[in-house]
Amino acid sequence: IDEWIPPGTRFPLEMAHDADVGSNSLVTYQLTSNPSFSLAMKETSDGSKPELVLETALDREKQSSFELVLTAVDGGDPARSGTVQVRINVTDANDNPPVFAHDRYRISLREDAPPGSAVLNLSASDADAGTNARITYGFEKMPSKALQKFVVDAESGTITLQEALDFEDTRAFSLAVEARDGGGLVAHCKVEVEVLDVNDNAPEITILSLSSPVPEDAPTGTVVALLKVRDRDSGEKGQVSCELAGEGPLSIVASSGGSYKVVTASALDREQASEHRVTVVARDRGRPALSSSTELVLEVSDVNDNAPVFEEAAQAEYTVRVPENVPVGSVLVTVTATDADEGQNGHVKYS
Question: Per the domain annotation, does 2 fall within a domain?
């Protein structure tokens, strides 16, 4: 009997036969008491035939079979009886959908997990039998990015990572999974995947401005460069410190919002160094730490801070002996002066 058969349905049973005649052959029937079934008689041209009447709805998942005894008793004295066993098998109807253990699952996955890593083994159960209990798994309609990153095995329900993750791109995914049985009934669950950050991004240094050349008479503390340092990682892995590498009269000062100022730390002197090269090194606090660097080239421009100097500067004057009959226009002496400045500032005129 199918479990979906409605109460009141009748099923004919075999008639009993008695070789006696008269009242000795009159037969009455009795059925083992059971709340799900009763016995009814149907009058036909051949006599009264017993029928099994379904009294209550069946549920194969609660009881899949029944054992009853049908007894036929004649009208003789003493009465004689015969019995037959009635075995009722309840066949399955797809009246139970698949069921997940949980409506929502939460999983954490490092962003450096390799493709092919198992994310979660889902399992749904179905109280039905046979093909009605055979479950296949799949994703519901989801954003294409999630479908690119994850795949679910239709038979086992295992969710696998199929493409590398990037915490800085997407920090979480919501996967909608369905389990469908052989009769078409469906169960749903959500899988929340949290992507955990790893220190896979080195700091990024951006030069916002560079004042070069800078006059050599610029006062100490003059801002010569503005930098922006950014690390795409989170937490300590995204916290950055900066320092200058290389010799030079410069220092770096932290400002707000990841900005830094490079300032002059002492007086400049173009005549000693017309160019300063320093390297800005940014290092995060990850374990292990990642760093990046960029070079700053600062040119020093000249100011007229050097007077001309005669080559014979050790003496304050020149003594030249000239014959009184020297012709007009004769060269008496040649003097040379130099200036440490450059360009017009170092161009010397004599008078």
Answer: no
Question: Do the domain assignments include residue 1?
Answer: no
The mean of the pLDDT values for the chain is 92
pLDDT digits (tens, 9 = 90+) for 128-170: 999 999 999 999 999 999 999 999 999 999 999 999 999 999 9
Query: What would the two tokens of residue 15 be?
Result: 């008639």
Of 89, 122, 146, the residue at which a domain comes to its end is: 89
**Domain limits for position 311:** 306-350
Closest CA to 78 of 21, 31, 23: 23
Q: Determine the Cα–Cα distance for residues 43 and 322; give it in Å rounded to an integer.
A: 169
- Euclidean distance between CA atoms 301 and 2, whole angstroms: 100
Q: Domains in the chain: how many in total?
A: 4
Task: Give the strand pairing for 158-161 and 150-152.
Answer: antiparallel
- Residue in the structure block whose two tokens are 């795409």: 232
Q: How confident is the model at residue 313 (pLDDT cuts 50, 70, 90)?
A: low
Pair type for strands 186-196 and 104-110: parallel
